[in-house]
Design a protein that fits this description.
- The chain has helices spanning 13-25, 80-89, 94-101, 145-149, 188-195, 198-220, 230-241, 243-252, 255-258, 263-271, 273-289, 298-312, and strands at residues 29-34, 45-50, 55-57, 102-106, 113-117, 131-132, 136-137, 152-159, 166-172, 185-187.
- By secondary structure, the chain is of the alpha+beta class.
- It has two domains: 13-214, no CATH class; 229-312, no CATH class.
């Protein structure tokens, strides 16, 4: 098999400067930020780490004067689970949803290809393609994670050599937003639960790990200073946006002859998109970073060992 390289949004200046300072202070930290909305009128982020127990005041409702303003010209990168959820909402497959409502882009931190929601009008500063002026979001129950998080930003960092990343939150305060003047108060944990964020974070965790690692490589230099290949980046985009294409790749190539996947998992990925996504993320981690997320079948492993010995002149 060939190996190729190719909210989540890019950090505003103040937050990225803070993270850069942390990286300089501790080179053993891999860090990246994913925040809700990027603006051109200065940084909207209050660079204070919030825990799940920290409280903040915010309420968005039809009565606030800025109703729907945040849905104009928004920079919304769609996660793989966002795409699955929105495709189900429209009763179409993900590839059709991508063709109808998104545009390809590059994730600024990692350089990996992603897809973003279309904003209307020629300059892209108009309302989101799903926004109705009178009634608000027309896909509210299936809205993306970035929209669910607002007005919170999500940051993540991981110590080198540690398996688990640590998440942190920031408050996003845009100049136009009147929701912060409301009296309703909730903790970060309560807000996340109320907005239904947990399943999105759970199913996108490995995807975010890949973006984090690539962002770290671009910032601090990856193995031998090399980027992943163009083909790998195409495979990353396929797994992220077109689960049916990845399913064909699994079942119509030598994938299952190469990797040791147990029978229960094989049956699950035949019909369950969420299970197939997790397999895709594990495969990408194995291909891109040589992580032991998947095991080669014994004959393939022995063949690889023999080839390595031949290359090194061994017996």
């Amino acid at each position: 098999m060939s190996r190729d390289d190719d909210g989540i949004l890019s950090p505003p200046p103040s937050a990225s400067e803070e993270m850069a300072g942390r990286r300089e202070a501790n080179s053993d930290v891999e860090a990246t930020l994913f925040e809700g909305v990027r603006t051109s009128d200065g940084s909207p982020v209050e660079p204070v780490k919030l825990t799940l127990d920290d409280a903040f005041k915010f309420r968005c409702h039809k009565g606030v004067s800025c109703w729907n303003a945040c849905c104009h010209g928004a920079d919304v990168t769609l996660s793989p689970y966002d795409i699955l959820t929105l495709a189900k909402h429209f009763s179409v497959r993900p590839s059709q949803f991508i063709a109808d409502f998104t545009l390809p882009a590059l994730h600024e931190g990692s350089g990996l290809p992603v897809t973003k929601l279309v904003m209307t009008e020629k300059d892209g500063k108009g309302p989101c393609v799903f926004m109705h002026e009178e009634n608000g979001c027309s896909v509210y129950d299936a809205r993306p994670a970035t929209c669910r998080y607002y007005p919170l930003g999500l940051g993540a960092y991981k110590l080198k050599g540690h398996e688990e990343r640590e998440d942190m939150h920031f408050l996003v305060k845009e100049a136009h937003c009147e929701g912060h003047k409301e009296e309703q108060q909730q903790t970060v944990g309560e807000f996340r639960s109320d907005q239904g964020i947990e399943p999105y974070d759970l199913l996108n965790q490995r995807w975010i790990d890949i973006l984090m690692k690539m962002t770290s490589w671009k910032t601090m230099g990856g193995p031998m200073g090399k980027d992943v290949s163009t083909q790998t980046k195409k495979m990353f985009y396929m797994v992220s946006t077109d689960i049916d294409a990845f399913r064909r790749f699994v079942f119509e190539t030598k994938f299952l002859e190469t990797y040791d996947i147990d029978d229960d998992m094989i049956e699950a990925v035949r019909t369950k998109d969420e299970a197939l996504l997790q397999l895709g993320f594990d495969w990408l981690k194995n291909v891109m970073f040589n992580e032991e997320t998947l095991s080669l079948r014994e004959p393939v492993l022995q063949q690889a060992i023999a080839a390595a010995r031949d290359e090194m002149g061994g017996s």
